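Workshop exercise sheet. Pairs work together: one partner reads the sequence aloud, the other fills in the structure field after running the prediction. Swap roles for the next sheet.
Pair: D.N. / O.F.
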Amino acid sequence: MSVEIGRFHDLHEAELAAALLRSAGIRAEVADHHLIGIDPLMQRAVGGLRVMAPPDQAADARAILARVQAGEFVSDEPDDLPAAGDAPARDAGLALGVLAAPWAAAGMLGARRSVSPRRRYAPLAILLLVAVLVGLPLLLRIMA
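Structure field:
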């Protein structure tokens, strides 16, 4: 039998809390996470996600989560995420994804040999249009 340690409104937050507790040696589980994974709208119906732990470890688990809420584990180190001005890698990834989209769309639409040449080359026309619309601003940004 387990007791409730805390309630969370987000599956990821509940899983992170349970993982933190497990790393401290507490046998924590997220209750109803399979139900929420199947139908996220059920999250409100069941009152959020409950993190559960054995009764003999409940006090320690609540103490750890209280320390998290107090901000004890917050670091002064900056995030390793790129700053807002460091966007070339993101832009290049976006451009590659957008440039690949016409072929993916053509595959989903069933572009086969039996289709007219005009329809077969439609993804190429879309690719050229996207290359101009995405590539030109990237090129101008690089040259500036």
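Discussion prompt: The CA atoms of residues 66 and 72 lie 9 Å apart. What would you look at next?
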